[in-house]
Design goal:
Ribonucleotide Reductase Protein R1, domain 1, 2 domains, 6-stranded mixed β-sheet, 12% strand, globular, binds guanosine-5'-triphosphate, binds magnesium ion, binds zinc ion
Length: 251
């Protein structure tokens, strides 16, 4: 869905109104579904007095995902990405418009290769400056793909990615006494037990359940659309055949 042969996805967000752990969960699920290694990159730490709080929120929510806090304009900060930049490595950039994806590319390449533009003052949103995908060779030997900022990301066909991202919750659900446990009032519910003991954070369970439901809904509607399209394709092919048959009769 994003690109082929990507090793690492830099999921970029900033210390401002763009910051949304819920959106990051969506990106992470899609990336993990595709067996791509995610790295969370928090930019604009130089512009916010609360940068450490943003970073702490990521650490609390995504303890197992590699994370970097940087000023994307600062070469020294950006050099902390070098473990993912070596020969044979392909990096993709994901994130909303204005979070600094192209800025990162420029800092990594050491030049103004990609156009960047200031975000809007009023609402902090980017201006969709990058409009095409482009691949750039890094001095360290790898390649990096710059992409247009994403508007929204609906989850579909990312079930495995979700289960990987929420592996602890997924493991708990399989330990409930009943296979179809709804994790509300059933006896022997491992999820409720973990909530009560404090082992599982309720926010995490709610996120998991909401994303699971969304993923299933979207997957089902995608499947329905595919089958409608297949049926239509068949109709078109049959119409074509009948036309030929008609001509045969005339001749
Ligand atoms: N001070 C500071 N400015 C940054 C940082 N990262 C990005 N910027 C600025 O934020 C603005 C947007 O950066 P871009 O690199 O154009 O953002 P983008 O993610 O490529 O946006 P699209 O191409 O629209 O998807 C530019 O003015 C950058 O100079 C940072 O870490 N610190
Ligand atoms: Mg850009
Ligand atoms: Zn249960």
């Amino acid at each position: 869905m994003i690109a082929a042969n990507v090793d690492t996805a830099l999921i970029v967000t900033s210390c401002n109104a763009d910051f949304s752990p819920e959106r990051l969960e969506r990106y992470l699920s899609v990336v993990m579904e595709a067996n791509i290694a995610p790295v969370l990159v928090l930019t604009k730490v130089d512009l916010s007095a609360d940068a450490t709080e943003y970073a702490a929120s990521l650490a609390q929510r995504f303890p197992d995902i590699p994370r970097l806090s940087i000023n994307a304009l600062d070469a020294e900060d950006v050099a902390t990405l070098s473990p993912w930049c070596g020969a044979g490595q392909t990096i993709a950039l994901l994130g909303s418009s204005g979070v600094g994806k192209s800025t990162l590319v420029n800092s990594l390449l050491g030049g103004e290769v990609q156009v960047t533009a200031a975000i809007r003052e009023e609402d902090g949103k980017g201006r969709h400056t990058t409009t095409n995908r482009s691949l750039h060779r890094l001095p360290e030997g790898g390649v990096i793909l710059d992409s247009p900022g994403m508007r929204e990301l609906q989850l579909a066909e990312a079930e495995d990615g979700l289960d990987q991202l929420f592996a602890d919750v997924d493991a708990l659900t399989s330990m409930c006494r009943f296979n179809d446990c709804s994790h509300s009032a059933e006896p022997g519910c491992a999820v409720v037990r973990a909530l009560q003991s404090g082992e599982l954070d309720e926010q995490r369970l709610l996120s998991y359940q909401a994303l699971k439901a969304e993923e299933m809904r979207n997957r089902e509607s995608l499947a329905a659309r595919h089958s409608r399209e297949r049926a239509f394709g068949k109709k078109v092919r049959n119409a074509g055949k009948n036309k030929h048959r008609g001509r045969d009769v005339e001749q």
